[in-house]
Amino acid sequence: MPPPSRPRKRSRGGRATEAAAAEADALISLPRDVLDEILTRLGILDAVRTSALSRAWRRRWEALPSLDLSFPRLEDDKGAPKGLGAVDSILLRCPGRVRLFRADIDEHYAGRVHDWLHVLPRRGVEILDLDFDKGFPALPTSVFFCGRLTSLSLFGCAIPLLPAGVVAFPELRKLSLVNVRLPDYGEYLIEEIIDASPLLDFLVLTDVSFGGDYIREWVIQAPNLRHFTICSEINYGWVLEDLTSLRSAVIDLWDFVVDSKFAKFLLGVVQVRKLLVVTRNAPSRAMIPEIHLCTFHNLKSLKLHMHFCDQPPIMLAFCLLKSSPNLEKIKIEIYDEEEQKFEADKEFQNALWTDGMCANLHAVQMTGINWRRNEMVFIELILSKARLLHTLSISHGEKIVMPSEDALNELLRYKRASTEAQVKLRSIIRSGVNFWALRETSI
User: How far apart are CA 431 and CA 428, in angstroms?
Assistant: First the structure.
């Protein structure tokens, strides 16, 4: 009779697997709403991976009452983002609401968007963010049937006209259109969407182009709008009305900043507290009109993307400073030209200064400065006129025209209207082979 066999010892790996399964089964005994929250926070790809934990977890993610589907393109992704090919299967297996759908879409998957946008309206999608990498594929009209949308962001696509009788996006709060194309009369589509969205508080229109040969005036009217960004090389006839809640705005309108209608356009954002204006793309040698009609009484923070090499951006900077009596902060990012084409000397800039200008100015920050004469004159003027100035912070660019030591010595000679004014010179220095450090010098 053979001796009784000894019971086999379980391997450490086996015990670890069983322990992990036991912990997973203990976790699944948590209240349903707690589990739903955990799986939602994991993200859809990791939520699906929980199917491997144990038999009890195999289909648990499919019972989620609400999904957030996000497929961003990562740096190491080649082609479509990881997981994008599983969208059809996810929508089929999980019948719950899709709260958010966000995807970076390459040309291989662009055609699938039509099918997804037939499903998403029925799933009550609230946040829709589609980023196409090439080709400007046309969206289907079913996008307008996403009636519960609170946020819509589109990049790199063509938007169709609104079907007759459809009221688009009545609950919309955020609309961002970047690098999109619309057909002829598309401006009226945007006007209608904005008009039908009374809750809209965030609007971005960047590189939005319209078909047709004619520029028609159309109205942006949004009484609850709090932030507005508009960037365009072409004046497409925008008219701003009833933006009474506006708090911040970004304006980059290329040639339009030297148009006689630009002052009227600025009247539409006159109530902002924060304003960024890009003037570096203004045409050379053009004359910017004086801003006579609008005073930015609420404006506290002004940011300018400009250069000091030509007359238009300098003129507009002074116009905005003169029109902002309660301004407290200025940040100027300098995008330098190859050469200084216009001399804005001390006499010229002093003539642009008026009484009360920068009366409440506390802080000035200038980045990318290259110690050009026009820039130095502007710095000297600010130091000599701003009586409440606390800090003038400067960091130089890569095309400096004189050594920083010489510029520093010149700054030391400038008179200061404020006894508390402090000039801080910031520079980046190499602190190792692959390391850089910020050095700050106060004078």
Answer: 9
d(CA 228, CA 205) in angstroms, rounded, equals 8
Which residue, among 351, 264, 358, has the nearest Cα to 311 in the 3D structure? 351
In the DSSP assignment, the letter for residue 110 is G
Q: Give the residue carrying structure tokens 């190792």.
A: 432
Cβ burial of 407 (10 Å; 0-12, 13-18, 19+) is: buried
Geometric angle at alpha carbon 331, from 268 and 321, rounded to 5°? 50
Token pair 């990012």 in the structure block, residue: 333
Token representation of residue 58: 């195999």
Q: Which two tokens stand for residue 311?
A: 């007359």
Burial per residue of 125-163, b for 16 or more beta-carbon CB atoms within 10 angstroms, e otherwise: bbbbbbbbeeeebebeebbbbbebbbbbbbbbbbbbebe
pLDDT bucket at 293, cuts 50 / 70 / 90: low
Residue in 63, 64, 56, 48 with CA at minimum distance from that of residue 21: 56
Measured at the CA of 109, the angle between CA 103 and CA 115, to 5 degrees, comes to 85
As a whole number of angstroms, the distance between CA 350 and CA 352 comes to: 5
**Angle in degrees, 0-180, between the axes of helices 404-413 and 373-385, rounded to the nearest 10:** 30
pLDDT (tens digit, 9 = 90+) per residue, 298-342?
999 999 999 999 888 998 999 999 999 999 999 999 987 778 888
Instruction: Tell me which residue of 176, 170, 284, 273 sits closest to 226, measured CA to CA.
Output: 273
In this structure, are strands 436-442 and 422-430 parallel, antiparallel, or unpaired? antiparallel
pTM: 0.86
Cα dist from 80 to 47, 143, 155, 156, 251, whole Å: 20, 22, 16, 15, 33
CB 344 within 8 A of CB 374: yes
Contact yes or no for 363/330 (Cβ under 8 A): yes
Q: Which residues pair with 274 in a beta bridge?
A: 248, 301
pLDDT tens per residue across span 244-266: 999 999 999 988 888 878 888 99
Task: Express each pLDDT in 87-96 by its tens digit.
Answer: 998 888 888 8
- Rounded CA separation 83/88 (Å): 11
Q: In one letter, which amino acid is 10?
A: R
Q: How far is CA 179 from the centre of its chain?
A: 13
